[in-house]
Amino acid sequence: MSPIATQLLIHWHKDHGRHHLPWQGSRDPYAIWISEIMLQQTQVNTVIPYYARFMREFPTISSLALAPLDAVLIIWSGLGYYSRARNLHQTARMIMQDYQGQFPNTRAMIQKLPGIGRSTAAAISVFAFSKREAILDGNVKRIFTRYFGISGYPGESKIMNLLWEKAEEALPITYRENQIETYTQALMDLGATVCIRHTPICKVCPLQHHCVAFKEKRTDQFPTARLRKSLPKKETVFLLLMQNQKLLLEKRPSSGIWGELWCPPEIKTGIDAVSYCQHQLGITVQSPVELPILDHQFTHFKLRIHPQLLQVVSSTLNSHNKFIWVKPSNALEQAIPTPVRKLLKQNFLLDNHKAFNHLTTN
């Protein structure tokens, strides 16, 4: 990107960029770090209310480090990609223990922390410490592939390395105050509001006359899409065990999807639920009632959930802090994943829901 184009982008940001996001206007590396992690693979409008709640609950690194992980996951519940929350918690504790509570102030040091890649570390170092670092998130990759006419899937190492070279070369010389911050935010804003994935709004783009994709009328060809394989499909069964109008939830292992979150007990399809409850959980139940199937899509696979409602007759369950009985309405206040939240709302918390009607008439 030429120096002229860089300056055009900076001037564009003054009148057309985003200036009132809740994490802007702060030099606090903690607040900037939280926002950057939340914004990974998540839209700004989705992040804003989560960010506000998170900062109210954990306003400092020390408050986050001292909090139990379950409390962090409760605030994060529904935002997805839960490894981000676990990494935030782990990193806060690491900063308190290894960095005397002071957030590292260089990109290289920040990048060593759990869950922080090169681009995120660069963004934090730019906005918190005015460092001259290049970012390369998804929006910026899209801008640069179009601007320079770079073909090839950006996830390939050869293309990624080329994009990093272009990102480094495009950095402005920081002889003006806040120029690197303005430039970095302008890139983010241009990618989010103008140089969007589908039907970019080229007529208002400050870079149009310098952009290869625009001049050649090939904006729809960049960035090169990855050859997509059909997502594998998996199926599972959730056991919605009810006793005295309370639902049984189980804390999942720390590894794997939904690590450390609360979910109904899960079994493979084809396993007899009554037998499983009796022999594995020590719970005697009535015959299960099949509830409507719920489909959920992850990045790498599709999951079909078969919920079964089971009324408990008797229980000798030994929890060991792994299980809790909770009212469905109160379960929403726990650290639960999105599909479980949907199941609860559909089957217990909406008018005329089938699960409630079944339990009250049997």
List unreliable stretches of 5+ residues.
none
Terminus-to-terminus distance: 70 Å
Portion of residues within helices: 40-55%
The number of helical runs is: 16
Q: Mean pLDDT, rounded to whole units?
A: 93
Global Rg: 24 Å
Content of β-strand: 5-15%
Q: Structural class, please?
A: alpha+beta
The number of distinct β-strands equals 9
Q: Secondary-structure element sequence?
A: HHHHHHHHHHHHEEEEHEEEEEHHH
Shape: elongated
The largest sheet is: 9 strands, mixed
What do these coordinates show?
By secondary structure, this protein is an alpha+beta fold. 44% of the residues lie in helices and 13% in strands. The protein is built from 16 helices and nine strands. Strands 1, 2, 3, 4, 5, 6, 7, 8 and 9 form a nine-stranded mixed sheet that branches. Helix 1 crosses helix 11. The longest helix is centred in the first third of the chain and has 16 residues. It is elongated, with a radius of gyration of 24 Å. It starts with a helix and ends with a helix.
Tags for this entry?
single chain, about 350 residues, alpha+beta, nine-stranded mixed sheet, 9 strands, elongated
Concise synopsis of the structure shown:
It is built from 16 helices and nine strands. The protein is elongated, with a radius of gyration of 24 Å. It starts with a helix and ends with a helix.
Per-chain topology:
Layout: H1 3-16, H2 29-38, H3 44-57, H4 61-66, H5 69-76, H6 83-98, H7 107-111, H8 118-129, H9 138-148, H10 157-170, H11 179-193, H12 212-215, E1 233-243, E2 246-251, E3 262-263, E4 266-267, H13 273-281, E5 283-285, E6 289-290, E7 294-297, E8 302-315, E9 323-326, H14 328-331, H15 338-347, H16 354-361
Parallel strand pairs: 1-8
Antiparallel strand pairs: 1-2, 1-4, 2-3, 2-9, 5-8, 6-8, 7-8
